[in-house]
């Protein structure tokens, strides 16, 4: 009997270890040191593991290189090994064309560029000038995946050969498409709310659809993976709710009401098993503990707050949430435990902010549409460290990337690499 119990305990321990390893595989995104392989970097949190990152720059200081792009776009740059990827577009509804560009992150030289066929016509006009290349690619060690709305999801190898294309829906919206693909285990998961009101999971190798979950309404945010003990869940914000799914099967596990009656644009962030959400035209925020089942509004919703953002995603850092109002140029800091506001300070002359903040080396980076970057201390006391301007007057709608101690910033015209000389 003692031996049997020992064997059972060993088997249970082995099963827990296997489950934990499987969950870790879902969360890693296969990003190595010095990489930024998806929207908002490692785990989609906007936090870089880099201990050093530039805080001051201009056209004449700490600008390592500048590369002209073949078209505008809100697609953020990503870095995977010795490759940097970014998406661009040209034309209008009747002749819109997309291009995936690969550059050397050390020099800014173009390694290759591939035109992606568009399904025409596109929507006649996209509000706020976001255009037809707003989704950020995602990459692993073999492939790069790009999402272009109703034109579909495309996979290329790192040398530029197209491997597959998959359709996820054909609808359009006046706001365009914006959500970026997420890598979860062997899957590429796409929020196709605009195109088919669905989450769609594709096999990384073949592009074959593995599962599809419906009910994804009024959602422009990129899903995130959340660690819940030895499991991993996938969370996304939709109209009025935050939803949790099993990323392996697409089964909905839980829902939490947000009390926000507007479309949801900012992406979620998480600390361990707590998910933080902002959104809504008037701005609101909440925290919900993942891991529940069914409607968890009463049991797992930890707090709600009246201030949030409608465009920029928040960032979690050392027990606090940081974000900026997209129109007022106000930076916010709130306690992640209670939602209580710690500070709200105006960034003088900031104007509109559409890019989501990033954290590196103890600093917060807020990039405005006019190209100014406000660097703040990443602490619950407002301290402005620097204001930097590249002198590029084309719109900056994309979020920055940080890799190998360098900051990569993209406007509609150029891509910039900033770092210590």
In short:
With 421 residues, the protein is mainly β.
How would you describe this protein?
By secondary structure, this protein is mainly beta. The chain has one domain (2-418): 7 Propeller (Methylamine Dehydrogenase, Chain H). It has three helices and 33 strands. The strands form eight sheets. The chain has a five-stranded mixed sheet with strand order 14-15-16-17-21. Strands 1-33-32-31 form a four-stranded antiparallel sheet, with no helix packed on it. A hairpin with a 6-residue loop joins strand 3 and strand 4. The protein starts with a helix and ends with a strand. Mean pLDDT is 92; it is low at 1-25.
Which key features would you list for this structure?
421 residues, mainly beta, Methylamine Dehydrogenase, Chain H, five-stranded mixed beta sheet, 3 helices, disordered N terminus
Distance between the termini: 68 Å
Q: What does the radius of gyration come to?
A: 21 Å
Secondary-structure-derived class: mainly beta
Question: What global shape is seen?
Answer: globular
The total number of structural domains is 1
**Could you name the CATH class?**
Mainly Beta
Mean pLDDT: 92
CATH architecture: 7 Propeller
- By DSSP, the count of extended strands is 33
What is the CATH topology assignment? Methylamine Dehydrogenase, Chain H
Helical residue percent band: under 10%
Q: Strand order of the main beta sheet, please?
A: 14-15-16-17-21
Largest sheet: 5 strands, mixed
């Amino acid at each position: 009997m003692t031996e049997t119990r020992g064997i059972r305990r060993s088997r249970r321990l082995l099963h827990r270890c296997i489950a934990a390893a499987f969950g870790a595989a879902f969360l890693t995104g296969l990003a190595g040191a010095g990489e930024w392989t998806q929207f908002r970097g490692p785990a989609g949190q906007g936090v870089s593991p880099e201990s050093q990152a530039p805080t001051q720059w201009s056209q004449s200081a700490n600008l390592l290189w500048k590369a002209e792009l073949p078209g505008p776009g809100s697609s953020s740059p990503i870095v995977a090994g010795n490759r940097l990827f970014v998406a661009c577009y040209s034309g209008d509804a009747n002749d819109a064309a997309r291009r995936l560009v690969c550059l050397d992150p050390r020099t800014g030289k173009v390694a290759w560029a591939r035109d992606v066929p568009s399904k025409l016509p596109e929507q006649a006009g996209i509000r706020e000038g976001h255009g037809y290349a707003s989704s950020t690619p995602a990459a692993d060690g073999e492939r790069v995946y790009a999402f272009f709305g109703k034109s579909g999801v495309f996979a290329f190898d790192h040398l530029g050969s197209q491997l597959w294309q998959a359709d996820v829906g054909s609808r359009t919206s006046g706001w365009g498409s914006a959500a970026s693909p997420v890598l979860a285990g062997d899957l590429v998961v796409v929020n196709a709310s605009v195109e088919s009101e669905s989450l769609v999971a594709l096999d990384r190798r073949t592009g074959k659809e593995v599962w599809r979950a419906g009910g994804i309404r009024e959602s422009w945010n990129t899903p995130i993976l959340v660690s819940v003990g030895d499991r991993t869940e996938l969370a996304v914000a939709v109209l009025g709710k935050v939803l949790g799914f099993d990323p392996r099967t697409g089964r909905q596990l839980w829902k939490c009401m947000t009390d926000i009656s507007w479309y949801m644009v900012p992406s979620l962030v998480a600390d361990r098993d707590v998910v933080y959400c902002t959104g809504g035209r008037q701005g609101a925020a909440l925290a919900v503990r993942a891991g529940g089942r069914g409607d968890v509004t009463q049991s797992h919703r930890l707090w709600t707050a009246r201030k949030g953002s409608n465009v920029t995603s928040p960032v979690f850092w050392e027990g606090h949430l940081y974000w900026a109002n997209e129109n007022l140029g106000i930076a916010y800091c709130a306690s992640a435990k209670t939602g209580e506001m710690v500070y709200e300070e105006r960034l003088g002359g900031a104007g509109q902010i559409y890019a989501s903040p990033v954290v590196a080396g103890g600093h917060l980076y807020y990039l405005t549409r006019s190209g100014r970057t406000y660097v703040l201390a990443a602490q619950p006391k407002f301290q402005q460290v620097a204001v930097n301007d590249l002198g590029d007057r084309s719109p900056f709608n994309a979020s920055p990337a940080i890799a190998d101690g360098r900051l990569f910033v993209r406007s509609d015209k150029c891509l910039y690499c900033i770092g210590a000389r």
